[in-house]
Give the backbone structure.
Amino acid sequence: MDVDLRKLRYFVEVAEQLHFGRAAQTLHIAQPALSRQIRALEDDLGVALFIRDRRSTTLTPAGQQLLHDAKPLLASAQATVRRALQAALPTQQFTIAFMPGITVTPAVKALSAQHPQLDIRLLRTGWDNQTKVVLDGRADVSIVRMPVDPRGLNVKPLFTEPRVVVVADDNPLARKDSLTLADLADAHLLQDPEAVPEWRAVAHELRNGRRAQVPAIGSVEEKLELVASGAGFCVLPRSTASFYTRPDVAVLPAPDLADNQISLVWNSSHETGLVQDFSDVCYLLRPPGAN
């Protein structure tokens, strides 16, 4: 059976939003046309993918399985097209993705010295796309902050670094030399609690069901703005906090927090000599004091 990738893209959008109207707006097509494409996909597969009524849209077991498998399939298709286009360029490109706070310059210089004619590009990522960029071909390698979903990836641990707590400068906690989890039990975390499981275990706002909604945060800068305004605290890797210094926030060590693991990842179906060469020089990325 040949599956139409366009229909799969439409399906993934609806499956992630669980709302045909919003998905149609995102895809810039009319809702009736989107509904027809989903019905056509269901006819192609011979299974129902959604349960729809006037109040909600939910995935069937078949829909859940298709969503799980379709996202890496679509990413692989995008990567195939991008690599073909790059192969036609007069100069070979190599794109290195990296998370904020990680300095890649030493490793870039080492790779450039080995391959003087190589066109090296850099791509800044965030928590939401640090692995997507290698799966869909936007980057050849990515320096990530764990944890990540390892499916479709080769993962090479590089080093670890402490995480720190960032609070507003006028917060009483800012007067301490360091913070314990007990100090943070009554504080509001401006992140997904899953990202800080140590805090999640003691957080009063999670136990009493009074956790305030956290707005969508797209960057470290936005997170620090909220911290400075007194909206709550955040936990950052030490190098990230050092990179984004500002006078209205305080950065405090928190020995109870586990270190952050930094790793190199690349697409397991696209391991090239250049990827291996870059992997070999990644020891240069280790900052002073890292483990």
Summary: The first helix runs from residue 5 to 17. The radius of gyration is 22 Å.
